[in-house]
Amino acid sequence: MKDELLNVVSKRISEFDQKNNEANAEYNIFKVLEVSEKEVILCRMLADLLNPFGYHKCGSIFLKMFIEDVLQIYDFTEQELVVAEVYKEYLIPKTDKRIDIVICIGKRFIPIEVKINAFDQEAQCYDYYYYALDKMNSSDAKVYYLTKYGTMPSIGSMISKGDMMPRNGVKPIAFSTDICRWIKKCIFIANGAIKELLQQYLQTIEEFTGVANERKIKIVRETLLEKKEFFSAGIIIEKSIISAKEKLLTSVFEEFEEQIEDEKSSLPCKLIPLGDYSWYYYKQQVPLYYKQKGVSWPGVTYLIEGVDFEDGKQLWLRIEVEENIYAGLCLFDPMADDGNGAQVDEMSDETKEMIKKHLNVNYIDNEYWWVKWFYLPTGTHEIGTGKSAVPNFKYMNEMATELVDACTRKAFVEHAIKMIKEQLLSVLKIESH
């Protein structure tokens, strides 16, 4: 019965994919330019749609629907609406911080911070909130935090020097629901070239947020409910799927460990595997990854021998998964936290100077404890698209599921290690071992 269920589901999903491909734009400009998950490009598109004076030439109608339907703000007049100002990358004076999108309408100052794949900066939402509070001189000030699924910002983004901003000072909004719903309304009233561009924009957002997968889930659900035997077979599959995901993610890390061990003679430095001792080791963290809320950050860690900091800090090579997989050099202090060790999340000027002494870097790419990092296989801070996308092990995108094949997994890790050697280990100022 399981085989019959899988055959029926497979056929129906294939039919859905075919219809979906026929309905969507054959030539999606966001895909062609490989910008379908790049925050800057998508923010610029969003900002122009919101701007009453934008290139869309539709006036303030898109903005009105956005403010009412997405932000749920209603205390503005039509006169205020038509002269509203919309800024992209709004610079906060006397700082280097830029708010992705700002809407100024009447007395309201509305900051929108967009996070698709990037990390929060420390005190980012905190600074934006109090700047908006000062600009509006009103307790109604809020930071609108736009992510794929409407998640809250990190605690570090909401705190500055031990002081935490009010939690109700942040309103999360989601591409997957709020923005998709709003764009559909925009499409309904648009025409001509802007209508087609909006359809491409919607298609792009639905793909990177997995909305299309939700429709596939509905197909599977309806199939399971067709008869008792299908439902019973589905329960068995359900009980097996988490274990299968864990096995896949574990296999990826095992492949990294095996290939790094095989490559050790060709590496420009000696890597000491920390194994069970290491921070967030995959053998302990993978079983939590799919069972607990939040993230368990499974990974593999190597101490880089020959990088000796005067204050005892250690430089590690770490390959890690949050949702997507990435690699980087990070800093650890084994004597911190009463001798138990801790990440070096805040780097002093002295620490940065020590890093420059041991690494050929012009700046410290410091995001928490990371000195330098990039996604795999893009080699950048971009998630990528299509066949060059970064595997997402939380939502199991196509690039992640392809790693079920042992040969594909082996080739992926080979490419990843090559990039690690070229972009990370090559910056170390130590002699080859």
Average predicted local confidence, pLDDT:
86
**End-to-end span in angstroms?**
58 Å
Poorly predicted regions: none
Largest sheet: 6 strands, antiparallel
Structure annotation, total helices: 16
- What shape does the CA trace take? globular
The helix-strand sequence is HHHHHEEEHEHEEEHHHHEHEEEHEHEHH
| Helix proportion | 40-55%
Rg over CA atoms, rounded to whole Å, is 24 Å
Main traits of this protein?
16 helices; 2 domains; five-stranded mixed sheet; 13 strands; alpha+beta; six-stranded antiparallel sheet; single chain; 433 residues; globular
Describe this structure in words.
With 433 residues, this protein is of the alpha+beta class. It folds into 2 domains: 205 residues, no CATH class; 186 residues, no CATH class. The protein is built from 16 helices and 13 strands. β10 and β11 form a beta hairpin. The radius of gyration is 24 Å and the shape is globular. The termini are far apart.
Provide a concise account of the structure shown.
Helices cover 45% and strands 16% of the residues.
Compile the SSE list and pairings:
Blueprint: H1 2-23, H2 29-32, H3 39-50, H4 61-70, H5 78-82, E1 85-91, E2 98-105, E3 108-115, H6 124-136, E4 143-147, H7 155-158, E5 159-160, E6 163-164, E7 170-174, H8 175-189, H9 192-209, H10 211-224, H11 228-263, E8 271-273, H12 282-289, E9 299-304, E10 314-321, E11 325-333, H13 336-339, E12 342-343, H14 349-358, E13 370-375, H15 398-401, H16 406-423
Parallel strand pairs: 3-4, 4-7
Antiparallel strand pairs: 1-2, 2-3, 5-6, 8-9, 9-10, 10-11, 11-12, 11-13
Helix pairs in contact: 1-10, 4-8, 8-9, 11-12, 11-16
